[in-house]
Write a structure and sequence with these properties.
With 253 residues, this protein is mainly α. The protein is 66% helix and 5% strand. A three-stranded antiparallel sheet has the order 2-1-3.
Length: 253
């Protein structure tokens, strides 16, 4: 099951666009490497392909892209934003080997997706009220990095079309990402991980590992980083809860 949201901001459309890029690359690679050596092999592959089950269709009941799914302090949240998050949660469950179409998981996806979009909204609103802004030059740099993931502009536009977002909206999401990063750095305080916490985590790993664990010195940096990320997420979630309590929120889904 998806862990209860501790909160991580990410450009929703960006994740989907890059996912589409990855899918396209895998498809192209498969086409290039799967050419049959003989007509007999071709016939066999074709027969096998016809027996394969078609990809499962999504069981999510998603709102229209331009529908208003929530209003947060007067700001309307569109369906396509919610849908992007819901699809990501669905993919996460699938990658974990779970069935996202069960009644329990469908409800989980709906609850978590709404929680994320509302959490993003209150955080970004607070960030902008406190004067956090995105540098135009950095936004342009991030856009160029995004475009570099695609073969050409047509491929990127095709991937964008699949998400329902425009290039302008993608740029706005990158801008919001920078605002969020600035806000996290300056406004969110989380306690530093102690040496004792790192040692405890390592000891627990050693006890639970069926194989011989690497030396503490080898694992220490990774463990410390992981524990710090957990603390940062917990601090962010606490801030989100504070902002939600003070916000006017109307869920329309």
């Amino acid at each position: 099951m998806i862990k209860k949201m501790t909160f991580i901001f990410a450009p929703f459309a960006l994740a989907l666009v890059l996912g589409a890029c990855s899918d396209n690359e895998e498809s192209t690679a498969n086409e290039e490497t799967s050419a049959p050596e003989t007509e007999q092999a071709e016939g066999t592959e074709e027969a096998a392909g016809s027996e394969e089950a078609a990809p499962a269709e999504s069981a999510l009941e998603l709102p229209e892209e331009d529908a208003v799914v929530a209003v947060v302090n007067g700001e309307e949240i569109q369906g396509k934003v919610y849908n992007s998050v819901a699809r990501q949660f669905e993919s996460t469950l699938t990658s974990q080997g779970q069935d996202p179409s069960t009644e329990e998981n469908l409800q989980l996806i709906e609850d978590e997706a709404m929680s994320v979009v509302i959490g993003n909204a209150v955080l970004l609103q607070d960030a902008k009220e406190k004067g956090h802004e995105a540098d135009d030059a950095v936004v342009e740099e991030r856009m160029e990095e995004l475009k570099a993931n695609f073969e050409d502009e047509d491929a990127m536009n095709e991937a964008l079309a699949e998400t329902g977002f425009t290039m302008e909206e993608m740029e706005e999401q990158l801008r919001e990402q920078l605002v969020y990063e600035s806000y996290m750095e300056e406004e969110i305080d989380s306690p530093e991980v102690t040496d004792e916490e790192v040692q405890t985590a390592y000891d627990q790993f050693v006890e639970s590992s069926e194989e011989e664990a690497p030396a503490f010195e080898e694992m220490e940096p990774t463990i410390r980083q992981s524990l710090q990320e957990q603390k940062d997420q917990e601090a962010t979630f606490a801030r989100v809860e504070e902002l939600r309590e003070a916000a006017e929120i109307e869920v329309k889904l």
